Batch of 4 targets.
Target 1
Amino acid sequence: MTGAATHWHAPRSLREALDLREDYGDETVVVAGGTFLGVLINNGVLAPEAMLSLRDVPELRRIEIGRELTLGAMVTHREVENHPEVRRLWPALAHMFSLVASPRIRNRATVGGVLADADYASDPPSMLAALGARVVLEGPRGRRELPVEDFILGLYETAIGSDELLTSVVVPGGHEAAVYRKFRTRSHEDRPCVSVAAARHSGRLRVVVGAAAMQPQFFPDVCGMGASPREIADEYAGRIDALSDARGSAEYRRRVVAVEVRRAIEETHHG
Amino acid sequence: MNCTLHLNGTETALGVDGKDMLLNVLRDEVGLTSVRGTCGIGLCGTCTVIVDGQTTASCILPVGLADGKEVTTIEGVPSDDPVKVAFEKANAFQCGYCTPGMILTARAFLDENPDPTDDEIAEALAGNICRCGCYVKIADAVRLAAGMLRDEKVAA
């Protein structure tokens, strides 16, 4: 037991959850699957006095498939990975989720949670950004959508207002090709040193590099310059302000980016 | 908060702090020390329990999220369960520290995939670490258990 007991809010509808969020703001920690918060609490980084659990909000568990894919914030990684229609129509997305950590973690970790955490070493943000996905935020001023690359502002920093909840993610469909490459420096590492997601939609290429810097790296002008895979990859390697951590130094990461971006773009040509 | 776990088939009411981890509640409040805390970040698998049919890292699950759920630890798996029997037959352990997590992971995995390939077994168990390095025999045990479970189905 650590300190005073936490006040535990467990709303049973989205309306109730949004009202609680508006009333309590950031002092009440929103919990989705708990896999990231659990680590923070165990390490003493976080000792929340109150928590707002989204576990029992049915509206956040929906998977809707049309021309676009809508994933409710509380849909788990495992549900995306195993959903037959998602696997058929968004195979790179399903594959990417299957590469996160272990089944035990994917059973709990949610689509909304991983985006709201904005951890630089998570897999989903770069893939979702490459697919042109939008994050849906709801609050007292209504509903707004932001592209994933504009939603993640920095390390553990997002555009979620203190009275808003991330309610779903919308992923466009109809890509000609989509690829996710996860580069690990050790076979036991769950997390990428560098990840590269590349997708083509209506002839336009989007390449997003994850885990190499504090937030997903996307350079639309480079993608649109009609250059060769190698030229685009070299430009990405030059522009990314790479970070150093246990999985690789900045210099090492830039070299990996140059190789992995080229390979990812080449793979989009080969289906 | 008041929290009710359907723990190994028994309704168990507990007064807990919702942010305490399920692992600590199971060990310290209920006395189920088969559930082991090691890495504290969901990586090693020794704290694995089954929550509503799905393996879960109890070391990073705030217990508030387990309220009202079915929780199974190794004590909830009968001693004649084919997976337990297969682990014994295959000698799939040395010190036994990782074994509860391994068996529970294998149990949930075989419910989902009754006829797995070797690669699928390796992938399913990749998140459970055995420091004695018994992986070859553990994989043997899962294969053996899969066969026993399929035979059970045919017989039934």
Target 2
Amino acid sequence: MGSELNGQAAKDNKELVLEVNNLVVHYVLQEETVEAVNGISFSLEKGKTIGLVGETGAGKTTTALAIMNLVPDPPGVIKDGTIKVCGYNMLELSARQLEKIRGKEVSMIFQDPMTSLNPVITVGDQIAESIMLHEKLTYSQAFNRAKEMLEMVGIPGARATEYPHQFSGGMRQRVGIAIALACNPKLLLADEPTTALDVTIQAQVLDMIDELKRELGTALVMITHDLGVVAKICDLVAVMYAGRIVEYGTLEDVFDRTLHPYTEGLFNSLPDIRNRKNQLQPIPGLMPDPTNLPRGCSFAPRCRYVSDACREAQPTKHQVSETHVIYCSAYDDSNFQIERARGRGGNG
Amino acid sequence: MAEVLLRVRNLVKYFKTSRGVVHAVDDISFDIEEGKTLGIVGESGCGKSTTGRCLIRLIEPTSGEIIYRGQDICKLKRSEMKNLRKEMQIIFQDPYASLNPRKTLLQIIAEPLLYNKIISSRDKFAIEKRVLELMEKVGLAERLINTYPHELDGGRRQRIGIARALAMEPKFIVCDEPVSALDVSIQAQILNLLKELQRDLGLTYVFITHDLSVVNHFSDDIAVMYLGQIVEKAPADELFENPLHPYTQALLSAILIPAVGANRERIKLRGEVASPIDPPPVCRFAKRCNYYSQECAHGVPPLLEITPGHFVACHQVKPVAPSATKAN
């Protein structure tokens, strides 16, 4: 399922930095099994940005952890699938080999800048640590590189000898970014990097990630629940629900030619800043329990277009254009349109 | 024009710390009309939550007046305040931390009823009836009455918080970031619920949030706070169409719009928010402001009515009409 997504880019002979194929991750507990990720596939070319969008429990963070091969085990079990980062098969490498790749080829920015830094080590040393792991440099050379990295993210190099608590939230997140980028990785995973930050600081940090990405040619997986963040920096979007990708395409595909009922529901839930009188249309109900997913489409219980077929079987895949894929059985009927598409006067 | 329900004058809340005095809320004034929503928006540390708590005296203001239906609640005795608090309620941000994990939904929602002796604790039937009524009002299924908070998701927990606030049939509710901890699809459910309740019960809200698109959608008037002060206040449409304070302009330009190509050039601010400890008596935004001039180093700018209903505190923004009055 979904390997065609990978095939597309390979045909064009682009350099693939990340290939995720049919990834399945479950958390096996004594009494129940949490089905966090249930067969997702996507790939990413050098320098591109993909947004993994979805709500709590959609499986976004688990996907990122699996890419780093950092899923906590136990209880996490990668049941199926392959993950290739710059050609390395992440799920088959030894711990030592992984250590060489993490930080060098792929690194991660975490959501909470308050807890992801070590409070008793200076920020300069924390950046230098990652540099020394991967490059043959002396401590003082590495520390100087650390200062340069701080300057790059807009913090005076002289502050390298300070501790995390001496920085504000926005600055701590920049330190996290400096650590992640210290060895110039080809792939960066950012897990809600701006969610804990204030609006103006969020904008600063996003601008910075965007600039650095362009400068260094880093590919980026941006995990977020914020469609505004996606619109700002992503080239591709994968909308996730209950551990599956339900809609996948370019930013324009997903935002301007939305097809999946869940994606539509997300847009309808957002206040429209340009029209405040607009009534919010929430998605009724709740995300399904990941220990007890419905037999058919996971979104069926909340879907306004649901039919009996949706409840019975997994949704069918529809490749709408070269770049745009949806998983929704409603489109088995070629005349089907969601309301958002009717508003546009067509589904093209 | 509707009657003013709450009139706040020169509200101040200082916290003494070992490093100096934190000016959390520093001389703010505003009115809220009955049945309306005042949105208070600003970034972390701007004093918006402290303001919300002062309004119902969950924390004691340092000075200032809070006049509710003609009566200064700061002057009330404890027992009088206890009585009045039935009318003034609060909904908290974190539905995970604001509910007692050892109590069932029934106990949580019934608590204010029993505490205020609205219903006798012996009358189990009446308690359950009233709790079920409240649960229905906020969209909680009857079968959940004996569940504990940890069994429920964030959206349902927030509904419990709302039901608990409604138990006393309040007139005025402070909503302190009520949807910030929720997913977007659930956030919309709660926002719609709060709006319905306002329409049905004639509630007056103070809606505190950092989320500009939510505040825009939800409020009639919006006050923008920066480091303990209101820098701009206007009807929601006016504020979004015609922001006058340089900070408001920067804040609005930082909103990320979820549409392709909709994001405009962001106004970049220098530096970060200054310390609220013993701030110098000048414009608190001056150091970061792109329009800084000599004038800005002279005193804290007063909140002036620039056009009818639109108040701005900035040395650079002058009232357009010659007869403009000082902010009430």
Target 3
Amino acid sequence: MRLLTHNMLTCNIKGVTKGFPLSIEVQKLETKETDFNPDFLKNIFPKLEWKAFHDAALSVGLNDIPEQVDPVMLEDSEFLQKFHHALLEVHLEEGALICPETGRRFPVSKGVPNMLLHEDEV
Amino acid sequence: MDTTSSADAGGGFIKPRPGVEHEPTAHLFVANCGPAVGLSLDTIKTVFSTFGPVEAVRPAGDSGTRVVVSFQNPEDAAAAKKALDGKKCDNLQGRVVFMQFSVFQPPSMAEEHLPVMTSSAGCGIPGLVLYPDFISEEEEERLLAAVDQSPWQVLAKRRVQHYGYEFLYKIRNVDLSQKLGELPPFVEEVVTRLSKLPELTKSNEPSLPLDQLTINEYPKGVGLSPHIDTHSAFEGSILSLSLAGSCVMEFRRYSDESKDESRIRIAGDKELGKNQMERRALFLPPRSLLLLSGEARYRWHHYIPHHKIDHVNDEVVERGSKRVSFTFRKVRRGPCKCKFLQDCDSQVAGIPSSPFLSNSESEECSHSDELDVETRPDTSPESSKDDEPNVEVFSKNLPQLETEQAVDEVGKAEETRHQLSRSFSHHTPEIEKQYVHKVYDAIAPHFSSTRFAKWPRVAAFLEACSPGSIIADSGCGNGKYLGLNPSCFFIGCDISPALVAICDQRGHEALVADALHLPYRSGFYDAAISIAVLHHLSNDQRRIRAVEELVRVVRPGGKVLITVWAVEQEDIRLVQKWTPLQGKYTEPWVDDENFKLHMKKSPSASSLDIIQESDGNGERQVDEEGPLVGKRDGEEGGRRDCLRSLSESDEQEISDSSSHPAAAGTTQEPHQEYFVPWHLPYHRAEVTGASVAALASGFARKDDKKGAVVYNRYYHVFAEGELERLTSKVKGALIVDSFYDKSNWCVILQKLQ
């Protein structure tokens, strides 16, 4: 699971009003090289919840993602490289995603989050 | 027709089929006898002359193991047959020969002799180039020695080695996520030389770097069924080096008409018009390099007859004890965009490499010797003698998904209708858990191996997404659409962990989730797709809920593509293989008045207990096929005609076979609830404990005739207009397009601003 995916995931348990962002519990990370595509980064940038992305990056040990960000930074290739790496190349292989409201733990195993809900959660 | 013609250049003798006895003639068709088994035509003539004057001994076909002996007098032929037929013959090296009377057929009816070219120019196929003596004898020796140092993968009739990426015969493609490594050092020099070929160094030529090598070792007499290398698997040129032995390679181009012919053929016709297939033959000597590009690569089938000798013009060339080919290719990353659409699996869904199959996706082979053939079957008259059909026509259809955890509704009847509706849609009915989720988990790898063709309409939708789009595939199955548009980011989800694991192994971003409860932020996606998913949901509330979720997660202005199986199947035979469920499946408690209002059709409540397979079902199944993946012509008018006629027969079928009460008085209403079988071949089922348990519990059954464990999948197939009615109930989106495509109803929704 990439951090980009993390940025779009939310806990959808019935009654939960603030299921985003899920906090990340890391057991194992992997880095997989991905083609660098600045245009894609520029396109995705406005969609991201930056704070959540920044926090997620921190939780996977990346501390070079600035907390505050401005679109002009997208012209800076050094920033783009770091952005690219954190967004697309770091994968959570084993661990969990945790609902900020209920503390519900969604396991991540072999890189795959299991977001299925239990019967009493829908 | 009770005869097949011999492909004999000398002429027009026909061989009776086994069991058909001709009146005695002067001509004897003699099997197990000929140059390929060490008996020269002269020797044979000498032996047969002891019965009377022999006019000629001619090879019968190209196998080298059959001849036609022509006496002057039929009596002598009869005497020879009486003395030698089926007996061990000392004068013929102790061989047991078999003979039948043959008759002469006028040349016009005999198969045309195909001249064998010795240069690629003679073939006149654009993109075909033969380089004789591309390597020296020393290099040949060195390569052969190096290959023998490496382990072989043994197929039924030949051995192979794969480097770079393994070619997976079951899917006729490579798995990009499973790189084996670099090409081996022993081909380094050859690759360097190949990379300098003028054909490969042209601008815009995508063949380099060559990153995949398949080495085939063919024993004498073994060939290759006609096929086109999967378009989506490789790009640029295909380069094949012949070592050790020679062969004649035949190239065939089928006209589009012959593909239509194929359907008729399946229905029982025996002959395919020969003029609908163009053929060329080229002799490939040892150490030669064959280069296929453009039309030669994308449009022409290549074929090596299963012969021990080849006729090269006037010469009889015996094949060596083996032939080893080194085929160098470049793995494709992204869809094929060639102009030969009729043969392109990237651009036409379910494309068969052979014109003799309907356009369904091919199932993997069920015969053990099928895996050795990098191709679809060819059942053309002249090759059917040697080439076993090796693929079953299989189902189209994609995965499913969804689930919801059940909420125990007992005691909540006082809830508002809205709340009840929500609960109803959230509760996953047992039929879906059992006959959708559980089945896909059990069959996932096999299912996935049959799911690779992409529908053009789905591909077109995805390709129209602007660069940088984020696309959600809800119910993504094995992830065949993930990554289809490389400029977009895809995320897939599916209820089946086994299918999601396959997506992940392929390097796609995917997670386990329920289509009725997408774990996504609202408005995040630029587009969403739901391909062959809604038909696995067992009531309208759940189907609507799934559409609501799709609309919720796309941004305002974002589009949603939904496809579902249609009642109106292009191939009515498929429907006949399905088991109609007794009445519309409903949960017992929905007799609540509120729900009756919502049920579009009168439910006749039933439970799983009374959902049974009809006894005759197995008998009616010829193959596991899903809805036909489409008429290739795609003409709207033809399609409509087809639909009309089908819906008539459909109704006929239903009135004949349906006994459920809902059918009475509602004859206009087609049956929509079915079990659709999935055949999991024993050799795949054996390795999973799931099938053992499923058989033990009666959840799945065995079909020994087909050698498969049979699972039933639940389907609610959609009637014309139903998908539009359903999706129009979803607020906040408009239907911007709706169409019928390849036995599916489809809509495109756009979320309102």
Target 4
Amino acid sequence: MSAPLRRLRETPRHLLVCERSHVRHERSRHAARVRGHAYNCRVSFLIPECGVLPEPLKSVTTDMGEYYLVKNLPLHELVAQEFISAFVKTGSCYALSYNTRIDQDNTAALLPTDCHSPLKHIGKLILSVDKDTYEELGLQGRPSRYSGKKIMRYIITIDLTDSAFHSDSKKYKRVLWALRDKKPLEFDFLLSWHHTGADGSTLMSYFSKHQIQAHQPKITFSTLRNLQCPVLCSNELQGKPEESCSAQELFEWLGAVFSNVELDNKSFSFVSTYCCPEPSTMMDQAYLCTITGFILPEKIIQLLDQLCAYFDDPKLAQWVTLTVHGFADSPVSWRENEHGFQKGGENLYNFVVFRSLDYWLQMAVGANDDCPP
Amino acid sequence: MAEGGAGEPPPPPRAPLERLVLKNAAEHHYLRVSLEFPDGGVRLNAAHFKQLVVSALKELHGEVGAALPVDVLTYDEKTLSAILRVSSSGFVKLWSALTLLGSYQNRKCAFRVVQTSPFLLALSGNSRELVLD
């Protein structure tokens, strides 16, 4: 086949990582995976054979935490010593610029201090800026990994909790000068702060001089009737013909369920030939809940714990799933791995928790992303 | 949790029990599209919509293109929007054919490709559609 024709058949790079482990296994890293994925815009869970949510699960679902939208916030406010000592050093402070597209605009994000690894993952401000802004700013950065031969995008990382980043240091003064005087940047920010024992509304009063709105995550519930579900076997990640479906098949099926795709098409149907993967079983009902907003990993861990606790009492369901979608325009996906938007900017993961508390974890990224951890 | 940072020795192995990395393994690609008529007022059912997609493929890529298996997974008659599934090797062909389609029954029209992904699941959560206020 000639080269141009072959190129016509190629698709952008994409990765799907599937893991299998047990929630109680000492080497299980499910919590680290959740914690490492800082910016999440949608969380959904599906429980087969469930009509009413148990109370603990319901209360976690309805308490996914308030988040804030601050309009036109000058970026230097996030490097102010007052802000750093009040929020960044004392809890997990998350910020992500809102309505900025990483393939064309400047984007900023504040990664929280991770109390579980105090030395490695510390309050960092990450800027993904175009070439012109980078040159005007005059801060040290590195070329984006996904900007091609002619570098048009740069990544600047500012370590806010570095000991050399105090109000008298040269470094601090330089950063403040760059962001306040040299090239003032403003963004609308999504903000959230997690700190045990404290109320997030402290953020609201801190930024009261700016236009700030509080938002609650939007929650939708639905009960799906007569749902055809694939049969899964926790030990068989790749599935077994005639016995169980693979993780990949489940991933597609879940997408079909979330998008309300017909699952019982005939193979000769003109419009669509998609069907539920085989083997499958018919379920009377399934409970689907979707939460949309700026959702913190800490809350997702609580939700995951409650989903595991769902199996404390005997249940009809063999497994439950928890799906988390990341922001397509965040400058990082997992941890500090650079993220970009080529065709879709997808960065998402999905847990399948089995009755035995074995779990599958699927992590998917698109073309401009590192391999998930 | 021990996570590897730059310039540090790799953390001790804390591997999961089993890990599979599937690179470019998606059999299908998915597109969320909507059809626009500048004059409006055109009604199409799912079968006609599919027929339009096939004719777009035929126009640009000939009989080979028309034979490409495309599924209309969902279709909304009111908004003329749909989710399409195509085998990964036909993704570029389908996208190009949709882009270059200009008319339906002598009326001007255009396909807008709203979102694409190798993962159907990704189409159910688009952060660019997160509208606050």
